[in-house]
Amino acid sequence: MKILILSCNTGGGHNSAAKAIKEALEEKHQICDIMDVLAFGGQKASDLVCDAYIEMVKKTPKLFGEIYKMGSKLGQLTQSNGKLRSPVYLVNKLYSDALKEYINVNHYDAVICVHIFAAEAMTSLKKHYKTTVPFYFVATDYYCSPMLEETTPNAIFIAHKDSLFTYINHGIDKKLIVPTGIPVSKKFLKKKDKAEVRKHFGLKPEDQVYLLMSGSMGFGDLIDTTRYIFENGNEKTRVIAITGNNKDLYKELKTTFSEEERLILVGFTDKVSDYMDASDVLLTKPGGLSSTEALAKGIAIVHTAPIPGCESENVQFFTEHHISVCARESEDAGRLAVSLMKDEFLRSQILAAQDNYRCQNSAMQIADFVTGTR
């Protein structure tokens, strides 16, 4: 088969999911390409939308949360009124001609959408061009995406069977839903020997290692969290801070803790899996992909303050299932992390709960379904 995966650059999670699925498909000897769906409307348009999204989330998260809520209500309204369509659908409909041409010229047998924009565009193709190429939607968060109910995928791959009720509440046909889990790269499915990984990073076996992650775009305030950990830690305390693409945050941490030898500062890296293996406690923003990578890996998680919307819902899923603890303020994150480091029993309880809610090899489950080999 030849399969097209449509992603979007609004954060690194969607692209990570796309790469994980491609990895699984290629392991099955399938031909697979990944494309930014917004680029079919022109690269400038894609850059404009993604930059606007990132700026809104960083500078006005409450506004983003309100828009998310409105989108959720609007999606349900469009479903109840078959003639009504959301602005999200209408915008993504604009480049459907270019997308249709690309699919036809390259003779794709199926399309996998890891972003709602892509699902809206494929729905337009199905409606207006009567395209028969099957398309599938992959959830990258733990509850139902706004506007998903106005799309028409052949199947919807969701994060967990316990998330099923949110899709049904949005009026989505249960027959379409397949609880595979969120796809992550296979490198997160295995743990390396902690002592060996620590040696590679210059850490000692007895060190108490905190891993701080702010997402690929470097969201969040790590300064207060890092300061609290150092002030309430000891000589064995080590903090690995990964700032992603946020160069300003990297510089601020480097300047603020210029004399702190216990800090290991990392920019954008493809070694997140190894850093998780080396660490005892993880502090991360509650993105669907980063949280699922941590869940797959098996590490005690402190979720930092969520961006209103999908991240709030991710936190709700994780805390209700006792597979993470959540802080609402940066200093609270440090306090929770230090407490978790000292409480070996609580860490073991979180890890035991994670064993019950970890989906197995989600990317391969999706690949098997799409190729009809499951």
Describe the structure.
This protein is of the alpha/beta class and 374 residues long. The protein is 49% helix and 14% strand. It is built from 16 helices and twelve strands. Strand 11, helix 13 and strand 12 form a beta-alpha-beta unit. Helix 1 crosses helix 16 and helix 5 crosses helix 6. The two termini are 15 Å apart. The relative contact order is 0.13. The model has no long low-confidence stretch (mean pLDDT 88).
Task: Tell me the structural class.
Answer: alpha/beta
Cα shape: globular
Q: How many helix segments?
A: 16
Give the % helix.
40-55%
Biggest sheet descriptor: 6 strands, parallel
Order of helices and strands: EHEHHHHEHEEHEHEHEHEHEHEHEHHH
> Count the strands?
12
Distance between the termini: 15 Å
Q: Unreliable runs, pLDDT <50, ≥5 residues?
A: none
Radius of gyration: 21 Å
**What is the topology, as strand order, of the major beta sheet?**
2-1-3-4-5-6
Binned strand content: 5-15%
Q: How confident is the prediction overall: mean pLDDT? A: 88
Strand-helix topology:
Blueprint: E1 2-7, H1 12-27, E2 31-36, H2 43-59, H3 61-80, H4 87-93, H5 96-106, E3 110-113, H6 116-128, E4 135-138, E5 155-157, H7 164-169, E6 177-178, H8 194-200, E7 208-213, H9 223-232, E8 237-242, H10 247-256, E9 263-266, H11 272-278, E10 281-284, H12 288-297, E11 300-303, H13 310-320, E12 325-326, H14 330-342, H15 344-357, H16 362-371
Parallel strand pairs: 1-2, 1-3, 3-4, 4-5, 5-6, 7-8, 7-10, 8-9, 10-11, 11-12
Helix pairs in contact: 1-16, 2-3, 4-6, 5-6, 8-11, 9-14
